[in-house]
Design goal:
With 322 residues, the chain is an alpha/beta fold. It has one domain (6-28, 37-305): Aldolase class I (TIM Barrel, Alpha-Beta Barrel). 39% of the residues lie in helices and 14% in strands. The chain has helices spanning 6-13, 17-32, 76-88, 108-120, 136-145, 158-164, 170-183, 199-210, 240-253, 270-278, 298-307, and strands spanning 39-47, 93-98, 102-103, 126-130, 133-134, 149-151, 186-188, 191-193, 218-223, 258-261, 283-285. The strands form two sheets. A nine-stranded parallel beta sheet has the order 7-6-4-2-1-11-10-9-8, with helices on one face. Strand 1, helix 3 (76-88) and strand 2 (93-98) form a beta-alpha-beta unit. Helix 1 (6-13) crosses helix 8, helix 2 (17-32) crosses helix 9 (240-253) and helix 3 (76-88) packs parallel to helix 4. The longest helix is centred in the N-terminal third of the chain and has 16 residues, at 17-32. 47% of the residues are buried. The structure holds S-adenosylmethionine, 6-(5-methyl-2-OXO-imidazolidin-4-yl)-hexanoic acid (DTB) and iron/sulfur cluster. The site of S-adenosylmethionine has 17 residues, from loops.
Length: 322
């Protein structure tokens, strides 16, 4: 168990930025070696828009009028060539997302997802899916089909959650994470910064993550992408140093987890991203699109990683034994 007190986490988070970055760098180097490597993950929205939930940041919620049009669930035949292309571009983890509250085994669409997973998992990449809430049985079926990791974010603190979402609860999210863990899939669980939360909320969010056993295998740190038409459309962008603080604190609390610099990179400078990598981020979403919003282009990312000497990891970097 890695549970930390709020005071401990606050003391880490609030130290002078360079001290924090130095501590995070040391944790990173002693756990991952000095060999630089950034995991490249590609996202694909296999079912876009029309979601019943009211997550106030989301372009895909049917509660808000956004530019996103809803589509049908993609078939395995449609997904496979996209996954193949991603692999050719150097992706080592392919992540498929669906705009659902959740999915049950009895739903015929679940069979389609399982078939897609079976085919994509033959390509040799890690396979991640994010489909909303899961029953224990659905989690087991996904694992058996070849899913290696399930993404289910807690997104913010339990206290702030109801200000952001009202159609499901923080506890519902935790329950699904438990089903995923029980089924033996790795948990990918992170959050969004810049949704009007306080520093205390960020610290609480990290504390809840430390309560997960085992610790999440990967932790995506998203900056809010303010979507026109959603309740959060006018929120100001997150200050880059706050993002660096969050990345560094996450690295210190979770020495062996992948810390993924996720939504919001198009708004970050090269220098801002470099600070995040220095502070221990070791994974990115790679490819022109996230789910519905833009991501830096593949060429731009290759150039950035090369210029920093951060050769992309051709295989998942294995944590060193300490
Ligand atoms: N429906 C599923 C769910 O809610 O878990 C899967 C898809 S959902 C879009 C996955 C995650 O994307 C959310 O939990 C949130 O962290 C992130 N996300 C969605 N919209 C975002 C936005 N506008 N800015 C930043 N992150 C966002
Ligand atoms: C995660 O934490 N971030 C990704 C992935 N997990 C599924 C999604 C980011 C979505 C950004 C908004 C959009 O493209 O719609
Ligand atoms: Fe639906 Fe997921 Fe978007 Fe919430 S975050 S509205 S559950 S797609």
């Amino acid at each position: 168990m890695n549970i930390r007190s709020l005071e401990d986490i606050k003391a880490i988070y609030q130290q002078p930025l360079f001290n924090l970055m130095k501590e995070a760098r040391e944790v990173y180097e002693s756990n991952w070696g000095e060999e630089p490597g950034i995991q490249l993950c590609t996202l694909l929205s296999i079912k876009t828009g029309g979601c019943s939930e009211d997550c106030s940041y989301c372009a895909q919620s049917s509660h808000y009028k956004t530019e996103v049009e809803s589509g049908k669930l993609m078939t395995a035949e449609e997904v496979l060539p996209i996954a193949q292309k991603a692999r050719e571009n150097g992706t080592t983890r392919f992540c498929m997302g669906a705009a659902w509250k959740g999915i049950k085994e009895s739903d015929s669409r679940f069979g389609t997802v399982l078939e897609t997973v079976r085919q994509v998992s033959q390509l040799g990449m890690e396979v991640c899916v994010t489909l909303g809430s899961l029953t224990e049985g659905a989690a087991q079926a996904l694992k058996a089909a070849g899913v290696t990791a399930y993404n289910h974010n807690l997104d913010t603190s339990p206290e702030h959650y109801a200000n952001i979402v009202t159609t499901h609860t923080f506890e519902d999210r935790v329950k699904t994470i438990q089903h995923v863990q029980k089924a033996g899939m790795a948990v990918c669980c992170g959050g969004i910064m810049g949704m009007g939360e306080t520093v205390q909320d960020r610290i609480r969010f990290l504390q809840v993550l430390t309560e997960l056993t085992p610790a999440p295998e990967s932790i995506p740190i998203n900056c809010l992408t303010a979507i026109p038409g959603t309740p959060l459309e006018n929120l100001p962008p997150l200050d880059v140093f706050e993002l660096v603080r969050m990345v560094a604190t996450t690295r210190i609390l979770f020495p062996r987890s992948k810390v993924r610099l996720s939504a919001g990179r198009t708004k970050l400078s090269k220098e801002g991203q470099a600070l995040c990598f220095f502070a221990g981020a070791n994974s990115i979403f790679y490819g022109d699109k996230l789910l519905t919003t833009d991501n830096p282009g593949v060429d731009e990312d290759k150039e950035l990683l090369e210029s920093l000497g951060l050769v992309s990891a051709t295989q998942i970097p294995v944590a060193l034994e300490v």
